[in-house]
Amino acid sequence: MLAGKISLVHRILKSLHRTLKFWVQGDEIDDYLGLDMEEFYTSRNVAQFEIIARNEYTRSEVKNPVDCSLFYLALRKKTVLQGLWRMASWNREQGATLKLLANNFDDPRWRTTALKNAYALLSKRRFCAAYAAAFFLLADRLQDAVNVCLNQLKDLQLAIAIARVYEGDQGPVLKKLLEDEVLAIATQEGNRWLASWAFWMLRRRDMAVRALITPVSTLLEPPASPDLKSRSFLTDDPALVVLYSQLRQKTLQTLRGASKVTPKVEWEFVLHNARLYDRMGCDLLGLDLGESEL
Description:
The protein has two domains: about 45-170, no CATH class; about 180-294, no CATH class. The chain has helices spanning about 1-15, 35-40, 45-60, 65-75, 80-85, 95-100, 110-120, 130-140, 140-150, 155-165, 170-190, 190-200, 205-210, 240-245, 250-260, 265-280, 285-294, and strands at about 25, 30. Mean pLDDT is about 80; it is low at about 1-30. It has about 290 residues and is mainly alpha-helical.
């Protein structure tokens, strides 16, 4: 049974950078990180974020525009949000909100008004934080919206998703988020998957390959001190070999990164993961590593 599951994972990982999966469960957005960078900012993929926005709006019997405001404003679809508010006749804030949304937020005066609303909401209880982030976006303050996601909502994935939709993959806010938050977490936890993804998003394809084998802490500038958790055996994942073999031949940059990994280190990486497979009762997969993956 276990061998069959790992064999399935083995095949799935081969298409990792060609696969897009969205799974909405409660307030969490999972697997939003799996989308390939070059494919993200297209009408088809932005439509996936619209699905999340609609799910947030329809998940309760009382359809409240407040629940999906952050998502539609991240998509820069204020008119859709206005339409939802027109149907919310039961909400006592309907009139004031429609009057506010009718203004031109390219005007500094109305951006200031949106900021005031955002800070007022932040001063209230935690459940207002997502709505506050929406008003920050209305004021074109993406960094502030991201900070709310990180500090008040404690939701890194939501922060990443909003940054990608709002400014695209080459924006300064996303870059800062990847460098300051994502890589820091990857280093602390010894999460090679996350580190490789972050470097890939930063267009450091060479580092994305090296992060799968080399300790993540040594790849940062300046090098960081690894957390004890990052050295735990629980961070070992034999499926990393599959991703490594797929990425290292993908582009000239990834090939350059792989060339900085010595044959000795590479072979030790293979042997270590082969032993992991053996311990898991998947000795045939372990034997296959040396023959087919590297």
